[in-house]
Amino acid sequence: MKQYTYKEMPFKTLSGISDKTNAIHHDKLYAGYVKKKDEIQEKLKTVELGSANQTYSELRALKDAETFAVNGTYLHDIYFDGLGDSSHEPAGAILTEIKKRWGSFEKFKAFFKACGLAARGWAVLSWDTFEQGLHIYTGDAHNQGGVWGALPVITMDVYEHAYFMDFGSDRGAYIDAWFENLNWAKIEKRFQNYKNVATQ
Protein backbone atom coordinates (compact mmCIF):
# COMPACT_ATOMS: atom_id res chain seq x y z
CA MET A 1 0.00 0.00 0.00
CA LYS A 2 1.31 3.45 -0.91
CA GLN A 3 1.99 5.67 2.10
CA TYR A 4 0.29 9.08 1.90
CA THR A 5 2.71 11.96 2.56
CA TYR A 6 2.19 15.65 3.33
CA LYS A 7 1.97 17.78 0.18
CA GLU A 8 3.60 21.19 -0.09
CA MET A 9 1.51 24.18 -1.17
CA PRO A 10 1.19 23.79 -4.97
CA PHE A 11 1.00 27.54 -5.67
CA LYS A 12 2.68 30.73 -4.45
CA THR A 13 -0.28 33.06 -4.22
CA LEU A 14 -3.96 33.36 -5.12
CA SER A 15 -6.06 36.24 -6.36
CA GLY A 16 -8.49 37.48 -3.71
CA ILE A 17 -7.56 34.90 -1.05
CA SER A 18 -4.68 36.13 1.08
CA ASP A 19 -1.34 34.43 1.59
CA LYS A 20 -1.98 34.59 5.35
CA THR A 21 -5.25 32.68 5.03
CA ASN A 22 -3.63 30.07 2.79
CA ALA A 23 -0.63 29.68 5.11
CA ILE A 24 -2.82 29.04 8.16
CA HIS A 25 -5.19 26.84 6.17
CA HIS A 26 -2.44 24.72 4.62
CA ASP A 27 0.49 24.81 7.03
CA LYS A 28 -1.54 24.52 10.24
CA LEU A 29 -4.93 22.92 9.53
CA TYR A 30 -4.11 20.59 6.64
CA ALA A 31 -0.78 19.66 8.23
CA GLY A 32 -2.62 18.92 11.48
CA TYR A 33 -4.97 16.47 9.76
CA VAL A 34 -2.03 14.64 8.18
CA LYS A 35 -0.29 14.40 11.56
CA LYS A 36 -3.38 13.07 13.33
CA LYS A 37 -4.10 10.63 10.49
CA ASP A 38 -0.61 9.17 10.90
CA GLU A 39 -0.93 9.09 14.70
CA ILE A 40 -4.28 7.28 14.60
CA GLN A 41 -3.12 4.76 12.03
CA GLU A 42 -0.01 4.01 14.08
CA LYS A 43 -2.17 3.35 17.16
CA LEU A 44 -4.41 1.04 15.14
CA LYS A 45 -1.45 -1.30 14.62
CA THR A 46 -1.43 -2.22 18.32
CA VAL A 47 -5.01 -1.55 19.47
CA GLU A 48 -6.54 -4.26 21.65
CA LEU A 49 -9.18 -6.10 19.60
CA GLY A 50 -10.82 -8.23 22.27
CA SER A 51 -12.75 -5.30 23.76
CA ALA A 52 -14.21 -4.08 20.43
CA ASN A 53 -17.72 -2.81 21.15
CA GLN A 54 -20.29 -0.69 19.30
CA THR A 55 -21.18 1.43 22.35
CA TYR A 56 -17.60 2.30 23.19
CA SER A 57 -14.18 0.81 22.74
CA GLU A 58 -10.75 2.14 21.88
CA LEU A 59 -11.02 0.56 18.44
CA ARG A 60 -14.38 2.24 17.80
CA ALA A 61 -13.02 5.63 18.90
CA LEU A 62 -9.93 5.31 16.73
CA LYS A 63 -11.86 4.16 13.65
CA ASP A 64 -14.35 7.01 14.01
CA ALA A 65 -11.55 9.56 14.43
CA GLU A 66 -9.72 8.01 11.48
CA THR A 67 -12.53 8.93 9.07
CA PHE A 68 -12.43 12.55 10.26
CA ALA A 69 -8.64 12.86 9.99
CA VAL A 70 -8.28 10.97 6.70
CA ASN A 71 -11.13 12.83 5.00
CA GLY A 72 -9.76 16.10 6.39
CA THR A 73 -6.44 15.22 4.80
CA TYR A 74 -7.73 14.11 1.41
CA LEU A 75 -10.37 16.83 0.99
CA HIS A 76 -7.78 19.52 1.74
CA ASP A 77 -5.23 17.87 -0.55
CA ILE A 78 -7.67 18.04 -3.47
CA TYR A 79 -8.78 21.56 -2.45
CA PHE A 80 -5.25 23.00 -2.62
CA ASP A 81 -4.22 20.95 -5.66
CA GLY A 82 -7.18 22.36 -7.59
CA LEU A 83 -6.14 25.99 -7.08
CA GLY A 84 -3.47 28.27 -8.49
CA ASP A 85 -4.50 29.30 -11.98
CA SER A 86 -6.59 32.00 -13.59
CA SER A 87 -7.90 30.26 -16.69
CA HIS A 88 -11.45 30.86 -15.33
CA GLU A 89 -13.21 28.26 -17.47
CA PRO A 90 -12.71 24.55 -18.14
CA ALA A 91 -12.21 22.79 -21.43
CA GLY A 92 -12.05 19.21 -22.60
CA ALA A 93 -13.86 16.25 -21.07
CA ILE A 94 -14.77 17.97 -17.80
CA LEU A 95 -16.58 20.77 -19.65
CA THR A 96 -18.43 18.22 -21.80
CA GLU A 97 -19.65 16.40 -18.68
CA ILE A 98 -20.58 19.66 -16.93
CA LYS A 99 -22.72 20.70 -19.90
CA LYS A 100 -24.28 17.24 -20.09
CA ARG A 101 -25.27 17.42 -16.41
CA TRP A 102 -26.19 21.10 -15.97
CA GLY A 103 -26.71 22.44 -19.49
CA SER A 104 -24.05 25.15 -19.32
CA PHE A 105 -20.99 26.16 -17.33
CA GLU A 106 -22.88 29.17 -15.95
CA LYS A 107 -25.69 26.96 -14.57
CA PHE A 108 -23.09 24.63 -13.06
CA LYS A 109 -21.34 27.54 -11.33
CA ALA A 110 -24.64 28.85 -9.96
CA PHE A 111 -25.60 25.44 -8.57
CA PHE A 112 -22.14 24.73 -7.14
CA LYS A 113 -22.10 28.15 -5.45
CA ALA A 114 -25.57 27.56 -3.99
CA CYS A 115 -24.40 24.19 -2.64
CA GLY A 116 -21.42 25.95 -1.07
CA LEU A 117 -23.75 28.42 0.61
CA ALA A 118 -26.00 25.61 1.84
CA ALA A 119 -23.24 23.35 3.20
CA ARG A 120 -21.53 23.78 6.57
CA GLY A 121 -18.24 22.18 5.61
CA TRP A 122 -17.76 21.06 2.02
CA ALA A 123 -19.31 21.12 -1.44
CA VAL A 124 -17.72 18.47 -3.64
CA LEU A 125 -18.00 17.95 -7.38
CA SER A 126 -17.68 14.19 -7.71
CA TRP A 127 -17.59 11.53 -10.37
CA ASP A 128 -20.32 9.16 -9.22
CA THR A 129 -19.20 5.69 -10.27
CA PHE A 130 -22.72 4.27 -9.92
CA GLU A 131 -24.40 7.01 -11.97
CA GLN A 132 -21.44 7.36 -14.35
CA GLY A 133 -21.77 11.11 -14.17
CA LEU A 134 -20.92 14.25 -12.24
CA HIS A 135 -22.76 14.99 -9.01
CA ILE A 136 -22.30 17.68 -6.35
CA TYR A 137 -22.52 16.35 -2.80
CA THR A 138 -22.31 18.44 0.36
CA GLY A 139 -21.06 17.69 3.85
CA ASP A 140 -21.31 19.39 7.22
CA ALA A 141 -18.12 17.71 8.47
CA HIS A 142 -15.19 15.85 6.94
CA ASN A 143 -16.82 12.52 7.77
CA GLN A 144 -20.44 13.47 7.10
CA GLY A 145 -22.13 13.77 3.73
CA GLY A 146 -19.60 11.91 1.62
CA VAL A 147 -20.94 9.18 -0.67
CA TRP A 148 -19.09 5.92 -1.15
CA GLY A 149 -18.51 5.29 -4.83
CA ALA A 150 -18.19 9.02 -5.58
CA LEU A 151 -14.69 10.25 -6.45
CA PRO A 152 -13.95 13.91 -5.57
CA VAL A 153 -12.96 15.99 -8.59
CA ILE A 154 -13.19 19.48 -7.02
CA THR A 155 -13.52 20.19 -3.30
CA MET A 156 -14.84 23.54 -2.09
CA ASP A 157 -13.98 24.21 1.56
CA VAL A 158 -16.70 26.38 3.12
CA TYR A 159 -15.64 26.15 6.75
CA GLU A 160 -15.11 29.66 8.16
CA HIS A 161 -11.33 29.14 8.37
CA ALA A 162 -11.18 29.15 4.56
CA TYR A 163 -12.52 32.68 4.18
CA PHE A 164 -13.36 34.57 7.39
CA MET A 165 -10.03 36.42 7.61
CA ASP A 166 -10.46 37.83 4.10
CA PHE A 167 -14.23 38.05 3.63
CA GLY A 168 -15.77 38.09 7.10
CA SER A 169 -19.18 36.46 6.90
CA ASP A 170 -19.51 37.02 3.12
CA ARG A 171 -19.12 33.42 2.05
CA GLY A 172 -20.52 34.18 -1.40
CA ALA A 173 -17.67 36.60 -2.16
CA TYR A 174 -15.17 33.94 -1.07
CA ILE A 175 -16.77 31.36 -3.37
CA ASP A 176 -16.57 33.82 -6.27
CA ALA A 177 -12.85 34.36 -5.57
CA TRP A 178 -12.30 30.64 -5.18
CA PHE A 179 -13.85 29.99 -8.61
CA GLU A 180 -11.47 32.52 -10.17
CA ASN A 181 -8.46 30.56 -8.89
CA LEU A 182 -9.45 27.06 -10.02
CA ASN A 183 -6.73 25.27 -11.95
CA TRP A 184 -8.80 23.66 -14.68
CA ALA A 185 -5.80 21.94 -16.28
CA LYS A 186 -5.18 19.96 -13.09
CA ILE A 187 -8.89 19.36 -12.61
CA GLU A 188 -9.15 18.01 -16.16
CA LYS A 189 -6.24 15.64 -15.50
CA ARG A 190 -7.89 14.32 -12.33
CA PHE A 191 -11.20 13.92 -14.14
CA GLN A 192 -9.52 11.98 -16.96
CA ASN A 193 -8.22 9.55 -14.33
CA TYR A 194 -11.72 9.10 -12.90
CA LYS A 195 -14.14 9.16 -15.80
CA ASN A 196 -13.73 5.53 -16.84
CA VAL A 197 -14.15 4.16 -13.32
CA ALA A 198 -17.47 2.34 -12.97
CA THR A 199 -18.86 0.53 -9.93
CA GLN A 200 -21.22 -1.62 -11.98
From TrEMBL:
<dbReference type="InterPro" id="IPR050265">
    <property type="entry name" value="Fe/Mn_Superoxide_Dismutase"/>
</dbReference>
<dbReference type="InterPro" id="IPR001189">
    <property type="entry name" value="Mn/Fe_SOD"/>
</dbReference>
<protein>
    <recommendedName>
        <fullName>Superoxide dismutase</fullName>
        <ecNumber>1.15.1.1</ecNumber>
    </recommendedName>
</protein>
<feature type="binding site">
    <location>
        <position position="161"/>
    </location>
    <ligand>
        <name>Mn(2+)</name>
    </ligand>
</feature>
<comment type="similarity">
    <text>Belongs to the iron/manganese superoxide dismutase family.</text>
</comment>
<dbReference type="InterPro" id="IPR036314">
    <property type="entry name" value="SOD_C_sf"/>
</dbReference>
<feature type="domain" description="Manganese/iron superoxide dismutase N-terminal">
    <location>
        <begin position="16"/>
        <end position="83"/>
    </location>
</feature>
<dbReference type="InterPro" id="IPR019831">
    <property type="entry name" value="Mn/Fe_SOD_N"/>
</dbReference>
<keyword id="KW-0560">Oxidoreductase</keyword>
<comment type="function">
    <text>Destroys radicals which are normally produced within the cells and which are toxic to biological systems.</text>
</comment>
<feature type="binding site">
    <location>
        <position position="76"/>
    </location>
    <ligand>
        <name>Mn(2+)</name>
    </ligand>
</feature>
<dbReference type="InterPro" id="IPR036324">
    <property type="entry name" value="Mn/Fe_SOD_N_sf"/>
</dbReference>
<feature type="binding site">
    <location>
        <position position="25"/>
    </location>
    <ligand>
        <name>Mn(2+)</name>
    </ligand>
</feature>
<feature type="binding site">
    <location>
        <position position="157"/>
    </location>
    <ligand>
        <name>Mn(2+)</name>
    </ligand>
</feature>
<feature type="domain" description="Manganese/iron superoxide dismutase C-terminal">
    <location>
        <begin position="91"/>
        <end position="190"/>
    </location>
</feature>
<keyword id="KW-0479">Metal-binding</keyword>
<dbReference type="GO" id="GO:0004784">
    <property type="term" value="F:superoxide dismutase activity"/>
</dbReference>
<dbReference type="InterPro" id="IPR019832">
    <property type="entry name" value="Mn/Fe_SOD_C"/>
</dbReference>
<dbReference type="Pfam" id="PF00081">
    <property type="entry name" value="Sod_Fe_N"/>
</dbReference>
<dbReference type="GO" id="GO:0046872">
    <property type="term" value="F:metal ion binding"/>
</dbReference>
<dbReference type="Pfam" id="PF02777">
    <property type="entry name" value="Sod_Fe_C"/>
</dbReference>
